[in-house]
Amino acid sequence: MNQRIAAYVTEKFVKNGIVTEKDKALYQYGVSQGVVIIFNILTTIFIGALFGMIWESMLFLLAFIPIRIYAGGYHAGSQIKCYIMSSLMIMLAMLDCKLIAVCSAAGFAEALAGALLLLAFAPVADKNKPITEDERSAYRRITQLFLLGELMMTAVFYCCSQSREFHALAAAVFFLGGIVTAGKIKNSVKKGIN
């Protein structure tokens, strides 16, 4: 569906002289990715609304995305599988936030577990997202910097009695650790990708 939307929008760009025919494929790809991102954000807001946790779902996403870009990890085989798995992950994260809200120690334990997994394994390449050794070193440092920042924010939220924010960030770090670990396991089963 997003391909049809992207083709339609790009064709309008060409007809209106915004994009040249030569650049059409590049813009179509960009519009397609934009549609996917917007659809995922709307889905996250919808899931957050179902749980009565719109703010937490958005904060989870804001904490999750920067580290995910550089840490890598498990990738689904298709966009639809990715969408379904991402939606399930957001639901589980919101449920997790509700469950650990009764115990701050659980939030700290989750953040610590996720952080240790990220430090041990990230970055994790995928056949669809291979990385060079230079990229591996740079991505590792960037992941560590983002992780340090998020752990500091988690501590600040805890100290300021911002329970909702504390648990959303703790859940983000925990799920990131899980995705990186799942990617490492997938690679070890398939062999050849670190």
Defining key terms:
194 residues; mainly alpha; single chain; 7 helices; globular; 2 domains
Question: Could you give a short description of this structure?
Answer:
The protein has helices spanning 2-15, 24-50, 54-71, 79-100, 104-121, 133-159, 163-190. The protein is mostly helical.
Secondary structure: elements and pairs:
Layout: H1 2-15, H2 24-50, H3 54-71, H4 79-100, H5 104-121, H6 133-159, H7 163-190
Please, could you describe this protein's structure?
With 194 residues, this protein is mainly alpha-helical. It folds into 2 domains: 50 residues, no CATH class; 138 residues, no CATH class. Helices cover 79% and strands 0% of the residues. It is built from 7 helices and no strands. The radius of gyration is 19 Å and the shape is globular. The two termini are 33 Å apart. The relative contact order is 0.14.
Mean pLDDT across the residues is 90
Largest sheet: none
Number of domains in the coordinates? 2
DSSP strand tally? 0
Helix and strand succession? Answer: HHHHHHH
